[in-house]
Amino acid sequence: MTQNFDMILKNGTVHTPGGAEQVDVGVRGGKVAAIGTSLGDAGEVIDCTGLDVLPGCIDSQVHFREPGLEHKEDLESGSRAAVMGGITALFEMPNTNPNTDTAERVHDKLKRAHHRMWCDHAFYVGATADNAEKLKELERIPGTSGVKIFMGASTGSLLVDDDDALSRVLASGTRRVAIHAEDEARMNARKDLRVEGDPSSHPVWRDDESAMIATRRIIALARKARRRIHILHVTTPAELEYIGQNKDIATCEVTPQHLTMAAEDAYPRLGTYAQMNPPIRSAAHRDGLWFWLNQGVPDVLGSDHAPHTIEEKAKPYPASPSGMPGVQTLIPLLLNHVAQGRLTLRRFIELTSSGPQRVFGLVGKGRIAVGYDADFTVVDLKKQWTVDRDWLASRCDWSPFDGDRLTGKAVGTIIRGNRVMWEDALANDAIGEPVRFEATEYN
């Protein structure tokens, strides 16, 4: 029985919960309405011959710098970079100026984002010692992705580093809490290990043990508080092994940067442009992350998109700020790993779609299934191309992967049945809406 649809994606390899299928997808009212063959007519038909249609990819960690630091990035430019790279939804971090740590500041970001951001979005609430008792209400604001704790100082002024304050934060609320796990006391004690003008000393200062101490501490505190946590941008194999022993309470993220770059090459070649927190570590660390990724321990991939201007990054270490852009290169970098046999496409989908849905309790996202949002990342797995600055949309106008030759690229970003990007061309209007969560929809 044929039907009428708003959109049909035809002739592609569609990745449904049942696996890869040569089927068409019919869209009506912004949602998947049918999956099959000979579906009927549509107002818009997209020929996906030779392409793979993936569930919309979700980047669960970006820093878009608005308000207060818009010279680096803003919600419009950062989300434009996201959809140019194939991202359909993202979670933005609270270390802005001012910090996103009150209800008023959350609502301000949501207002700024509405139909100005190109993709769907949610915002983290920053935990502080002062707002700890209020977090149980702040985390329930629709459009919030939960609470973020900085255990170690990074860009911005959010820091909660003592056990008493951490315990009060964990005791306030029920949603999964995102953690930047580096131990502030150890890093303060090791500051003299930074070498002026030598960014390769960055991982010596912020060493493995700084990460491991924080990860052990926060898991112990979370277990005492009976609170689920999510440890961001894990950089050491030892942490992943330990998290693997505590999966009942802890999920975790790895980044494309830490899976792709190694200190031995990155710091001599890129200098301060390779500087981020936690640091790019050795090739042995990178290989260890891949081992545990293929053991199934990491739950999601996030870009930790953290842009700074070229002028800021050009300052001599350690005056240079930590962070690099990555939202636009998340998908192509990982597709290149798929092409090279390090990663299966099924695992990629789990880390960028169904994983975020499971970890954070998203409503209507994360899979191609009837009734779900019609979010698709359409990719050409065989496309060989070179990253260049003309393609980059971030306001910071640089990438550590500029000049890299890759195989695999997102050619289309479709959000709730709207073709937002196709073959590097952007739509006329931004249509981003807040992501919905089970915890705020049905509490």
From TrEMBL:
Pfam families noted in UniProt: Amidohydro_1
Entry annotated with the keyword Zinc: no
Cofactor(s) recorded in Swiss-Prot or TrEMBL: Zn(2+)
Gene Ontology molecular-function annotations: dihydroorotase activity
Uppermost EC category: hydrolase
Domain Amidohydrolase-related: 53-420
Keyword Metal-binding in record: yes
Keyword terms of this UniProt record: Hydrolase, Metal-binding
EC number: 3.5.2.3
PANTHER family: ALLANTOINASE (PTHR43668)
Family assignment from sequence similarity: Belongs to the metallo-dependent hydrolases superfamily. DHOase family. Class I DHOase subfamily.
Biological function: Catalyzes the reversible cyclization of carbamoyl aspartate to dihydroorotate.
Protein name: Dihydroorotase
Organism: Sphingobium soli
